[in-house]
Amino acid sequence: MNRAKKEEAKKLREAYESMSPEELEEFERRRRIKSLAEQIHSELFPEEYDFMMDSIADAKDRRRGINPMSDEYTAKVNARRKELGVSPLGDNGMPTDNSSWDVAHAEAIRRLK
Predict the structure, then answer these.
(1) Distant-in-sequence, close-in-space partners of 107: CB < 8 Å, separation ≥ 6
(2) In terms of residue numbers, what domain contains 49?
(3) Cα(76)–Cα(36) distance, rounded to whole angstroms?
(4) I want to staple 41 with a disulfide (CB 3.0 to 4.6 A). Which of 36, 75, 88, 104 is the partner?
(5) pTM, whole model, 2 decimals?
């Protein structure tokens, strides 16, 4: 376990100790929703993680506002995003707002009910 994970676990233990049973239940519910929303977001919107695999040249292009993804791929992705009620990707291939996270969060809540 690395240092960051140890610190996170320590903070979590401290938080658990200071909570009432009702607070603890609500805290756990929110953690489950957040975790599921992250999973749903990565499944529904993988294009928002494409930048992680950018080469140095692609990263420079994105900073300049140039989308390194192909036009066909971008059009296909933006059509799917429109169907889901999410704003299209910006000119640099990055999301322009948090609407995809809103969709993922709403789906997580729906699945956990």
Answers:
(1) 37, 40, 44
(2) 3-112
(3) 25
(4) 104
(5) 0.82
